[in-house]
Known about the structure:
The chain has 407 residues and is α/β, with parallel strands linked by helices. β3, α4 and β4 form a beta-alpha-beta unit. The strands form three sheets. A seven-stranded mixed β-sheet has the order 2-10-9-8-5-3-4, with helices on both faces. Strands 1-13-14-12-11 form a five-stranded mixed β-sheet, sandwiched between helices. The relative contact order is 0.16. It contains 14 helices and 14 strands. The chain folds into two domains: 244 residues, 3-Layer(aba) Sandwich (Aspartate Aminotransferase, domain 2); 132 residues, Aspartate Aminotransferase, domain 1. The chain binds pyridoxal-5'-phosphate (PLP). Pyridoxal-5'-phosphate binds next to α3.
Amino acid sequence: MRNPNPMRGRNFLMTPGPSNIPDRVLAAMHRPAVDLVDADFVALTDSCFDDLAKVFRTKGRVFLYASNGHGAWEASLANLIAEGDLVLAPSTGMFSWAWGQLAGDLGAKVEELEGDWRRGFDADQIEQRLREDPDHRIKAVLAVQTDTATSVTSDIAAVRRALDACGHPALLMADVVASLGTVDFRMDDWGVDVAIAGSQKGLMTPPGLAFTAVSARALEQSRTAGIRRGYWDWERRMNDEEFYMKFFGTPPEHLIWGLREALDMLFEEGLETAFARHRRLAAAVHAAVDVWGRAGALELNAVHPAERATSVTTIRVAEGIDSNRLRLLARDELDVSLGYGLGPLDGKAFRIGHMGWINEPMVLGALGAVEMAMQACGVPYRKGGLTAAVDSLAEARFAEARRQDAA
Ligand SMILES: *Cc1c(COP(=O)(O)O)cnc(C)c1O
């Protein structure tokens, strides 16, 4: 559909990655390139390595790649998983599936643990499978914290408990691409061996940077494990003498300036405050969908409230409704970009991203546009979703202060 009205005002980028880039981050990048071993730039880059470790909450080593999240997936596998190694991939959605697929592409044997894509993975099921592996053939468990396709958040610490309960030495790898900076993640406390993330979701930075955070144990194993790996190799990148090798070539300077600014913003806000903001915004989206859904045409994909992601919400539509029609109308008529349903959810779900640089009015604007799009597409919904979102946000943000004033 061609919109005869020229778009005016801000585009609302409500996709679950890339997410909105703060003006401050854009401004920090607006500068000429520098000599690739410029002393100030090297110092600034080193500060990014240190501060990323704080965001991952690890004393382990962080590696930065000029790549997207898929690159970080490959890095985690290439450094630790050899051809023929067995890996366990508990299924939570399209992203857990795709990480497993990539492991298969690299020659690993991949065993998917079945899931219904509406719940987090089941740690008991994982433990059960580990117990059936007395010879320790399983080399790693690939655990996705927030699966962006299904907006289900799983309990990463529970995988560590499952591994420890049966004394299984498999590595715990966690994909936190869609969750880092939006919800609690404690790499060291939770015994995660490798965590992978990207720049363009909760971290408010343009796409193109990816990170792996690696425990001492995983780093040690990587010396003898894995496949031939060139670009992804951790050992080569640990070259503290030669800065150029930290990126295995030219560093992506502008993305690093952007990342520096975004990390400053994250620390100014405080990680806990950022998590609370994400919880508030997610709760408002859930409240709206809950009311809209009372007409029977839509519902939250994540079944258990405690497993609903703080960074993205997947909304299923009833049989006979085309979620893509609604999404395209919102995009082409209202300039609001929503996420589409991935894989088997194509046409059956749409997604609202609410991660990174985002606040209450942005979420309310997006919800208003969704409601307009539902009207335009004739999707039956109960009125009052937007009011429920306003109430939820006002309560979370102001009710406590009001009660204190009254006291
Ligand atoms: C986005 C995403 C990825 C892949 O990242 P790309 O940058 O698109 O390659 C992997 N895992 C999760 C959970 C994601 O949300």
